[in-house]
Amino acid sequence: MLTEKETKPPLYLDCIHCGLCLSSCPTYRVLGSEMDSPRGRIYLMRAYDEGRAEITDSFVEHMFRCLDCRACETACPSGVHFGHMMEEMRGKIVDERPAHWIARLMLKHVFPHPWRFQLMARMLQLYEHSGMQWLVRGSRLLRRFAPGMAAAEALMPEIGIERGLIMDSHYRAEGKRVGTVAFFSGCVMNSMLGSINRSSVRLLTAAGYDVVVPGNQICCGALANHAGLRDTAQQMARANIAAFPVDKLDAIIINAAGCGAMLKEYPLLIDGAEAFSSKVKDIAEFLVSTRIFERLKTPLNRRVGYDDPCHLIHGQGIKTEPRKLLKAIPGIEFVEIEGADQCCGSAGIYNITQNELSMEILDRKMEKIQKAHIDVLVTGNPGCMFQFRYGAKKLGLKLDVVHPVELLAQSLGNSGTDV
Amino acid sequence: MKKEVIKKLREILGSPAVIEDETELLVYECDALTLFKSKPDAVVFPWTTEQVAQIVRLANEHRIPFLPRGAGTGLSGGALAVEGGIIIELQRMNRVLSIDADNRFAIVQPGVVNLHISQAVAPYGLYYAPDPSSQMACSIGGNVAENSGGPHCLKYGMTTNHILAIEAVTPKGEIIRLGNAAGETVGMDLLGAIVGSEGTFVIVTEITIRLLQKPQWVKTLLAAFHSVEDCSQTVSDIIAAGIVPAALEFVDAKTIEAVEASVYKAGYPQDAAAALLIEVDGFREGLEETSNAIVEICRRNRSYDVRVAKDDEERARLWLGRKGAFGAMGRISPDMITMDAVIPRTRLPEVLAEIARMSDRYGLAVANVFHAGDGNLHPLILFDGRRQDQVEKIHRMGEEIVKLCVDVGGALSGEHGIGYEKKEFMNLVFTEPDLEMMMRVKRVFNPDGLLNPSKIFPTRRACTEIGKHTTTSTAEIGKRVDEVLRGSAR
Fold it and tell me: Is B416 on the interface with A (CB under 8 A)?
């Protein structure tokens, strides 16, 4: 088989070095250094490919300092596929320099296996609710002996004991059935933010769709792919494609932006994924063309701001749909937040691997959120939600951070199926 | 560079703000002009004017060349470290320091992005007028250095018309202040000499800019033509009718192809040979008449479709398409070089036709997208930088285009600067005494030539002028020229 390189010209040739991407890049905005900009990173990738640069410590640093938020793709007049290039480059780096053992353990041996992931989530829950966390934080021991780990610990999401969807289940449409969709339950969503998945299914059934939740699906593989573990991501893609009866579905619905972008881009990862990927729809993208609007009856009197998850706006080009849905909820006062299309610094596990920079980016973001004087912040990706909850807590803000489907489901009131 | 210098730079700025790693330096070997590459020995990131002055004094002490850099979106190699040395990257000095809405000025640091100024003052109904196509990325410091233009400079003037005062570090490391917020010239108008000196006189560290009130009413039109000649004639006719549009932009079929394939898809007519993007602004009264007059002129020149943007959204889209046009060339070509010559408007048809013939002769595609209103051409020559034969052709074709423009009474550069790219062409338009006078002025500001060397002035001329001393260092040439001028040379 021909390798990618032999069949098509290198992707970096699309970059004409104009620099229009610069101010869209969160790391460039903070650091102002060319090698931490999309243009600079592409320049280095090209230099590597042409034998003018090697994979040195600093090379690796700058490649992994990228948030993979893909805001540069939205800004790029040349249509450079930056995210894809970065994933490939990281793949090459990881071939030469294996990732950190903790990252490998998590991404290769925990995320791809749903029950191991569940187990981990429950252990974290136990840690938080048993008083152990209180002890660790109170004693400040971690901060003293392992400050890096303490920073990661501080970012740990508060995991409620929320019931997720039951796998291998089937939910019936309400009223006249329009069609059948499958639900991609995700790893984090279903184990840590289960009520969001249940709200999603409630909305889909209310919109007239039968919803199936295939039992063999696993994590989408995005985190592994972003970390350069392409083999692992490829295996996960194959497992997921096999788990969904694509022919029988009108759509495959996903409610996490990062996972949605990954599922839609399986064709960049493996062959034969087009049929699956072409059916993938973000929940907002899907709902906006359904009859859900007539069901949003219960008023919610709240001042709401929306923050675009990068992998929704930049990765999937979805910007207006979630806004349109939120604005349709009676009673809501919708506010545009300045710089809503800019990354919050969460970026998968970036807030742990690049803690300092991530916090700087978050601080700038929180400043703008405060200016909007909202009491609910809506965003459609679990990582971003955790990051914002942390940011709000740090500042002592009274701010609910929720997924769009939570507000939408509330507006259904008591109507609709209980999931 | 000596370890000792790096150590001292780190003492001034702290370790992470000094770069000397080979991989990291690689990305600083060029700006947006990639045809020429030269790696600096170090890149430093100061936060304050005082730090810039300290760096400059250190460089002087060790006789190391240095130069400022902004966003690196320049198209003439102005931020190219031709002789190595230290790049002083000003991107961390990126704050809007103060806004005086009543008196309509703002004080900003050089690293502020052009567009961010307008965004920052928008709540006051104000904006900063010069709008280079790269305004979403380029920095105001770079705009001052290059005296940047942009579509709306047709009506509102270039950067130099909007700079009220500056604070700057001289090439010897002193801090000076010129101009004042009231915009009055007191004493000598050195500000005018510094704006557009392409970073060879001083390093600007703080800028007081003029703000304008947003026009009450704006109308944007798009006129499509089946022939380039008709389109260019329309440009001349609009100006001849005494109309001063806010902007008058030309896009040809190749540009339309690239833009329409990009994220900045603007709805440009894909069957047109060329189109004009025309904007008029001002008080609402009379604007309708002006706009109708323009439509009439377009029709008379056989425009087959003239439409007026119906709302702000469509207007914004038409402009984003224009401003993303250079970058969009990546859709149709791996590399591109942007020319920047200015010609008399009336010569547009023949010059464009000749450029088309050259394009055929060299076998290199050319896209034309430019500020037609002031005759500022931007032929974009498309090529593949990996092919040496094409790179050589580019140089020859570029020279031929420049000569053509000069022959019809034009200028070398409208707004991108001479930089490194066009310095050898200076002989085409300036006489020996012209160039000597410019060099002497430069030597007043930059006597040792350490600040941004090897820019603007032709090397060829200086070498023949001075005789056997073949050298590429401007510092050296500068010294020699001075000797010649003083009559002390052999």
Answer: no
Specify the CATH number of the domain A4-96: 1.10.1060.10
Residues of B in contact with A32 (CB under 8 A): 45, 89, 91-92, 94, 111
Question: In this complex, do B113 and A23 lie within 8 Å of one another by their Cβ atoms?
Answer: yes
pLDDT in tens, chain B (490 residues): 789 999 999 999 998 999 999 999 999 999 999 989 999 999 999 999 999 999 999 999 999 999 999 999 999 999 999 999 999 999 999 999 999 999 999 999 999 999 999 999 999 999 999 999 999 999 999 999 999 999 999 999 999 999 999 999 999 999 999 999 988 877 888 999 999 999 999 999 999 999 999 999 999 999 999 999 999 999 999 999 999 999 999 999 999 999 999 999 999 999 999 999 999 999 999 999 999 999 999 999 999 999 999 999 999 999 999 999 999 999 999 988 999 999 999 899 999 999 999 999 999 999 999 999 999 999 999 999 888 999 899 989 999 999 999 999 999 999 999 999 999 999 999 999 999 999 999 999 999 999 999 999 998 644 333 333 333 444 454 455 455 545 443 3
* CB contact A54 to B (< 8 Å): yes
Residue A170 in 3-state DSSP? strand
Q: What are phi and psi of A282, to 5 degrees?
A: -70, 150
* Secondary structure class of A79 (helix, strand, coil): coil
- Residues of chain B with Cβ-Cβ distance to A53 below 8 Å are 23, 26
| Contact of B29 with B39, CB cutoff 8 Å | yes
CB contact under 8 A, A23 and B136: yes
DSSP per-residue letters across A285-335: HHHTTSGGGGG--S----EEEE---HHHHTTS---HHHHHHHHTSTT-EEE
**Domains defined along chain B, listed by start:** 3-89 (3.30.43.10), 96-213 (3.30.465.10), 217-407 (3.40.462.10), 427-486 (no CATH)
B21 has a chain A CB within 8 A of its CB:
yes
The dotted CATH code for A169-287 is: 3.40.50
Is B113 close to A44, i.e. CB distance below 8 A? no
CATH of A291-411, one of 3.40.50.1100, 3.30.450.20, 3.40.50.1860, 3.90.226.10: 3.40.50.1860
- The model carries a pTM of 0.88
> Which value, in Å, is the radius of gyration of the alpha carbons in chain B?
23
Predicted complex ipTM: 0.90
- Contact call for residues B454 and B473 (beta carbons, < 8 A): yes
